Amino acid sequence: MSEASEILIYLVDPSLPKVKQYETLAGELSKIADTTFSWRYLLSVLNETVRPSRAFTEALRAHILSLDGVPTIYAKSVPVQVRSKSADIEGAYVMGASKICPKCANKFVPNVPWRRFCPACNPVRSC
Ligand SMILES: [Zn+2]
Q: How many domains does the chain have?
């Protein structure tokens, strides 16, 4: 049995109408993955007639973590190691994507979207 179908069995309450539950769960997973999963797709994954997509599996994991109070935005993130001036960003969610400095090729997460160069090549001005 696949991990996804095991999780789905856990989420479905046999005493309630199944199609309605599949529709509700498919809607929640669609919202997490920012795509559309039909209730029939969910049922196919549950019955193991379709292999779940990566997006579906990740949404399902995020949904399970959200049941324990973990915001889905954190559940969908991956831990990475970053360099920072202070340790207070440990565990923080970084909302921006990294860029490569065209001058020195260092990777950095810009403090503003229009920043082109890393802080070493173009220091951040303090107000
Ligand atoms: Zn640079």
A: 2
In a domain, 20, yes or no: yes
Q: Phi, psi at residue 17, to the nearest 5°?
A: -60, 125
For residue 43, what are the domain limits?
A: 3-75
Residue 114 Cα to ligand 1 midpoint, Å, equals: 14
Closest Cα partner for 82 from 69, 72, 65, 95?
95
Asked if residue 81 belongs to a domain, the reply is: no
Domain match, 119 and 57 both: no
pLDDT in tens, 19-77: 999 999 999 999 999 999 999 999 999 999 999 999 999 999 999 988 888 888 887 78
pTM reported for the whole predicted model:
0.65
Q: Report the alpha-carbon distance of residue 14 to residue 44 in Å, rounded.
A: 17
CA 124 / ligand 1 centre spacing (Å): 12
- Name the amino acid, one letter, at 95: M
CA distance 54 to 111: 31
What is the CA(92)–ligand 1 centre distance, in A? Answer: 24
Does one domain contain both 10 and 70? yes
